[in-house]
Design brief:
CATH superfamily of chain B: Immunoglobulins
Largest sheet of chain A: 5 strands, parallel
Order of helices and strands of chain B: EEEEEEEE
Shape of chain B: globular
Structural class of chain B: mainly beta
CATH class of the largest domain in chain A: Alpha Beta
Oligomer: heterodimer
Largest interface: A-B, 25 and 25 residues
Number of strands of chain B: 8
CATH topology of the largest domain in chain A: Oxidized Rhodanese, domain 1
């Protein structure tokens, strides 16, 4: 797999806006952003309403994912191009989710909504109509999903990459600095985790750094890519971006995203927690 | 609210609000957070006390501003690009 199989630039998307086999999908943290405007012919997936189980803390199940994609008019053979705000945090999360349920061809728009806006490219308010499909999902590929026990067992043995900001890692903040600090669980990080904030993967405009720069980043931070790696953040979306870098761009097969992340780990009874910058 | 350290302000071009992004960088220049500006060009961060750099990104321009935030206060920053 090469970079061009998983990542497309804004020019490519522009050229394929009317390609019936390409479905552009916006996924935002701010789910109202789509209503303001969006890339022409793009449909919306709401990461909270559409992708989460309404009762339990978990994803929609296989049947739920099938129903969602069928309703959105996405077929099994379509090329799905995901983009969103926050430097593609939630688009990366959706990408990982599409892979979890085995979609064949899914790609990210490099730089997401920010790059598109900074390029002053066209955004529209019209919502496209797509005929419903009969989408068939596969069983969850748990080779890319880590659970809490995987994380506890990885302490001191596997690579643990904490992709939150240094202040969240050290325990000085509980959430990113643009969000209210309302969480009540314990601050800190998983012992032996390396702090490599997600932003180090990206340029100011939200595009990913080169493969060479990314490899250099992880090796300089002491991540031995020959070992299995688990990435986590607060709720699993920023770490989905790091998972994308390691698993999709750099082709490392042994990388999992821990979607429970700090909001789960930092609330567990009895697990070890480290504080401070190291 | 009183305990929170807030950095907020607006981004304007020739006195008019601009739609773009503001990044919050820590004292070491490391990325901490980013928000899009509102329809009226405004932004807000919940930070901690200390020295920060705000980096405004708008189509065709990037502007940095250094600010010092203090505990429990709202630091107002007007950025012209």
């Amino acid at each position: 797999m090469s970079r061009s199989d998983v990542l497309v630039d804004a020019d490519w998307v522009q050229e394929n806006l009317d390609n019936p086999k390409v479905v552009v999908v916006e996924v935002d943290e701010d789910t109202a952003a789509y209503e303001l405007n969006h890339i022409r012919n793009a449909v919306r997936i709401d990461w909270k309403q559409d992708l989460q189980d309404p009762v339990r803390r978990d994803f929609v199940d296989q049947a739920g994912f099938e129903a969602l994609l069928s309703k959105k008019g996405i077929g099994n053979d379509d090329i799905v191009v995901l983009y969103g705000g926050n430097n593609n945090w939630f688009a990366s999360y959706a990408y990982w989710y599409f892979k979890l349920y085995g979609h064949g061809d899914v790609r990210l728009l490099d730089g997401g909504r920010k790059k598109w806006e900074l390029d002053a490219r066209e955004l529209v308010v019209e919502v496209p109509e797509r005929a419903a499909t009969d989408y068939k999902a596969q069983e969850q590929n748990t080779a890319i999903r880590a659970y809490r026990d995987d994380v506890v067992n990885a302490i001191g043995t596997l690579n643990l990459v904490d992709v939150r900001s240094p202040d969240e890692f050290a325990g000085r903040l509980l959430a990113p600095a643009h969000l209210p600090q309302e969480q009540s669980q314990r601050p800190g990080h998983v012992p032996s985790a390396r702090n490599i904030p997600w932003a180090k993967n990206a340029n100011d405009d939200g595009t990913f750094k080169s493969d060479e720069a990314l490899k250099e980043l992880y090796s300089a931070e002491g991540v031995d890519l020959a070992k299995d790696t688990i990435a986590y953040c607060r709720i699993g979306e920023r770490s989905a971006l790091t998972w994308f870098v390691l698993h999709e761009l750099l082709g490392q097969e042994n990388v999992k995203n821990y979607d429970g992340s700090w909001t789960e780990y930092g609330s567990l009874v009895g697990v070890p927690i480290a504080l401070g910058d190291n | 609210m009183a305990k929170e350290t807030i950095i907020q302000g607006s981004v304007t071009r020739d006195g008019e609000p601009v739609n773009g992004y503001v990044r919050l960088l820590d004292e070491g220049g490391e990325f901490t957070a980013e928000v899009p500006t509102s329809a009226t060009g405004q932004f807000r961060f919940f930070a901690r006390p200390g020295k920060w750099t705000l980096r405004a990104l708008v189509p065709g321009a990037t502007v940095d501003r250094v600010v010092v935030a203090s505990q429990g206060a709202q630091t107002e920053v007007a950025i012209a690009v």
